[in-house]
Specification:
mainly alpha; Yip1 domain protein; membrane; transmembrane
């Protein structure tokens, strides 16, 4: 199934989508592609915000801001997300989680990729409207969407069915 359909389905049936991803087997390359794709799209989501800041504020020019965001999103953020997945898995293990380090990465990285459409929308709203009610509404949707998918992903990835992966 195309990844765009899986992303759309993740908002309605997140457990089923993550269970399908788990059933596809242990593929570290796929999980790495999820986190790198998500980070690339998160970098793109920052463009309107950075362009607005470069135009309205004194400080570094747009190319310097884009270079810093590129370094942050494509080099540093993936490492942070790997550490975050490990910490969440360790906490789940302490309370009886049955998943593996791989399933924890899969759950978090898929959640990041699945919420990139909302994050792209947030970047557009932040870039075009700036701070205000619109940005707060879309930002709230991003947070709610992220945690909806991630909590359901944790339930699947740390549950009994994830123990064999």
């Amino acid at each position: 199934m195309p990844i765009s359909r899986d992303i759309a389905r993740s908002y309605v049936r997140p457990r089923a989508v993550v269970a399908e991803k788990l059933a596809a087997g242990r593929r570290e390359d796929r999980v790495l592609a999820y986190v790198m794709g998500a980070c690339l799209l998160l970098f793109v989501a920052q463009w309107p915000v950075l362009a607005r800041a470069a135009h309205l504020e004194d400080g570094p020019p747009l190319d310097a801001r884009l270079g810093g965001a590129l370094l942050g999103w494509l080099m540093i953020a993936p490492l942070f997300f790997y550490i975050m997945a490990a910490v969440i898995h360790a906490l789940a293990w302490v309370v009886g989680g049955k998943g593996t380090w791989f399933t924890a990465r899969l759950g978090l990285f898929w959640t990041l990729l699945a919420t990139t459409p909302l994050m792209l929308l947030n970047g557009l709203v932040s870039g075009f409207f700036g701070p205000g009610a619109e940005q707060m509404i879309v930002g709230t949707l991003v947070v709610l969407g992220f945690f909806w998918i991630w909590i359901n992903a944790i339930i699947v990835t740390e549950g009994k069915e994830a123990a064999g992966v």
